[in-house]
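Summary of Year 1 activities. Much of the first year was spent building the evaluation harness for sequence design. The harness presents a backbone, in tokenized form, and records the residue chosen at every position. We chose the following record to illustrate the format because it has been used consistently in internal testing since the harness was completed.
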């Protein structure tokens, strides 16, 4: 029996230019202020969350990362206790520090996957994109786009 194999990747990455902004270490109240007006996503012991920044918890979530976005910017926070290390990525903007990112489709965990706890319906109602910064300090930014 022979099998047909394909060498085509499942999700082809599209290279795009963006402006990278290193924001630095913030305490949680400062991080919440930075996120004002964005949509935020994170996974913690209670599941996967997608919510407006105005509904963020008062205390930092029990998570390692929080991703946020608005129409012009993607934010990535690495949560470390009461602080967060923050960076912003501005796709298509040509001023400041230019980086090349790989843009590819992203998917939340399957409905029956238990890695991130129960997934809310909004996690499957959105189409996600991953903006992957490679190199010596790789990082992934996440944003939702209209499905």
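For this record, the design step produced the sequence shown next.
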């Amino acid at each position: 029996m022979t099998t047909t194999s394909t060498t085509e990747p499942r999700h082809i990455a599209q290279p795009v230019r963006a402006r990278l902004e290193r924001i630095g270490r913030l305490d949680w109240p400062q991080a919440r202020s930075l996120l004002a007006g964005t949509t935020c996503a994170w996974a913690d012991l209670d599941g996967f969350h997608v919510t407006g920044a105005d509904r963020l918890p008062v205390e930092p979530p029990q998570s390692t990362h929080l991703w946020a976005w608005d129409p012009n910017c993607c934010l990535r926070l690495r949560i470390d206790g009461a602080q967060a290390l923050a960076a912003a990525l501005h796709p298509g903007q040509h001023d400041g520090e230019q980086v090349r990112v790989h843009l590819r489709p992203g998917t939340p965990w399957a409905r029956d996957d238990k890695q991130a706890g129960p997934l809310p319906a909004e996690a499957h109602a959105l189409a996600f994109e991953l903006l992957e910064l490679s190199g010596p300090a790789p990082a992934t930014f996440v944003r939702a786009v209209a499905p």
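The chain is about 10% helix and 50% strand. Quantitative recovery figures across the full test set are reported in Table 2.
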